[in-house]
Amino acid sequence: MPPDCTSAFYRENAETYAKRARSLPKQQLDAFLAELAPGAAILELGCGGGQDSAYMLSQGFDVTPTDGSTELARQAEALIGRPVRVMLFQELDADSAFDGVWAHASLLHVPRFELPDVSARIRRALRPGGVIHASFKAGDAEGYDSFGRYYNYPSAEWLSELLTKGGCRNIAISEYDGGGYDGKPTRWLTIGAQR
Fold first, then answer.
1. Which segments of 35-106 does DSSP mark as H helices, in order?
2. CA triplet 158, 127, 118: central angle to 5 degrees?
3. Structure confidence by residue, pLDDT tens digits, 124-147
4. Rg of the chain over CA atoms, in angstroms?
5. Is 80 strand, coil or helix?
6. Is 91 helix (H, G, I), strand (E, B) or coil?
7. How far, in Å, CA of 195 to CA of 186, rounded?
8. Are 8 and 67 in contact (CB under 8 A)?
9. What is the DSSP annotation of 114-160?
10. Which of 27, 102, 123, 149 has the fewest CB atoms in 10 Å of its CB?
C-alpha cells in the first residue's frame, strides 16, 4: 500500500479493523480452494485480521499469511496462532512457490502504475497452473475513501487487459454489489486466473 493515509489508517485502527464484524467470503473461499489439491500451498496477500487464513488452515491447506501492516499482522497472529510475514506486495520475490494466491480486498490499495509489476510478481510466485483470487472495488479512476485510504478502482475491462498482458490464462471476472468497512454500497470485482 502507498506510504500515505492508507498505511496510517491500518496502523492506527488495526485492532478495531481486525475484530470488526465481517462475513467470511465463504462462497469465494470454497470455490478457490476447490481448484487446489488437498494441502496445497497458498500465499495470502493482505491477510488483515487473519480470518480467511484461519479458514483455509482449518481446511487443511498450507497457508503463508502476509500483510503490509505490522499492527494488522500481530492481530492476525493472535487469531491464527502462527507467524504472519510483514511484507508489501512490491516486496514479493517468490518463484514457483505456491499453488494458489488469495488476495481478497487487498490489491485494491496498489497504485495503478504499480499493478503490472505486482501482478507479474504474483504470477512468478505461482507454480505452473497455479490459481489466483483477487477482489477490487470497481470504478474508472483512482481515488480515496472517507477514511483517506487509497483505492485503484479499476473496471473489469482494465483488469482483464492487465492480466492478459501479464500472461495469465483462464481469466474470469465477476461483479456483485456489497459493502465495505466505510459502510457505503460498493460494486465489487472478483477475479480468478491461472498461471
1. 51-58, 70-80
2. 35
3. 999 999 999 999 999 999 999 989
4. 15
5. helix
6. helix
7. 29
8. no
9. GHHHHHHHHHHHEEEEEEEEEEEE--SS-EE-TT--EE----HHHHH
10. 27
